[in-house]
Amino acid sequence: MTKALVKSVGVANAALALIPTLAWAQAPSDTGRYDWEPHMMWGGGWYAMIFGPLFMILFLAVLMLAAVALVRWLGGPWSGPVLPHHSTAKPLDILRERFARGEIDKEEFEERRRVLGE
Fold first, then answer.
1. Tens digits of per-residue pLDDT, 98-111?
2. DSSP label at 99?
3. Which residues pair with 44 in a beta bridge?
4. pTM score, whole prediction
5. By the 8 A CB rule, do 66 and 91 touch?
6. How many CA atoms lie within 13 A of 58 on its CB side?
7. CA-CA-CA-CA torsion for 48, 50, 56, 57, nearest 10 degrees?
8. 58 in Cβ contact with 65 (< 8 Å)
9. In sequence order, what DSSP letters do the residues of 11-66 get, joined into one string?
10. How do the residues of the chain divide into helix, strand and coil, expressed in percent and rounded to 5?
């Protein structure tokens, strides 16, 4: 029994040693590897050289626009710049309003009206 066991182990070891060799022998060769694929410079793949960078720039632009839109949306409504209120009232009208409110007396009103009139 011992001889049979040693013989079967020897056969099993020989079979295991041949398995990688058999797998390598069945692997396809690289001789015709690029015959059917489009090449970058020989036509078929030239569009990747042109449209690849364009699509990358387009993708980055869309990504930035989405980020700006998200920030604006999260920030709430924009009230715009705060501009000083410019009055269209004439200086004499303002002087009359100040006199009517009692901010200036009659003498100051007459003096300023005379200065504005000149």
1. 999 999 999 999 99
2. H
3. 39
4. 0.33
5. no
6. 6
7. -170
8. no
9. HHHHHHHHHHHHHHHHSPPSTTTTSSSPBSSSSBSHHHHHHHHHHHHHHHHHHHHH
10. 65, 0, 30
Tokens 């690849």 label which residue?
Answer: 52
Please give the single-letter amino acid code of residue 89. Answer: A
Question: Beta-carbon neighbour count of residue 95 at 10 Å?
Answer: 19
- Kindly state the DSSP code that residue 104 receives in the 8-state scheme: S
- For residue range 6-37, list pLDDT tens digits in order: 566 566 666 656 565 555 555 556 666 555 55
DSSP state of 103: S
Tokens read off for 25: 């022998």
Using left for φ > 0, alpha for ψ between -120 and 50, and beta otherwise, residue 8 falls in: alpha
* In contact, 72 and 79? CB cutoff 8 Å: no
| Cβ atoms 45, 38 nearer than 8 A | yes
> Average of pLDDT values for 85-113?
88
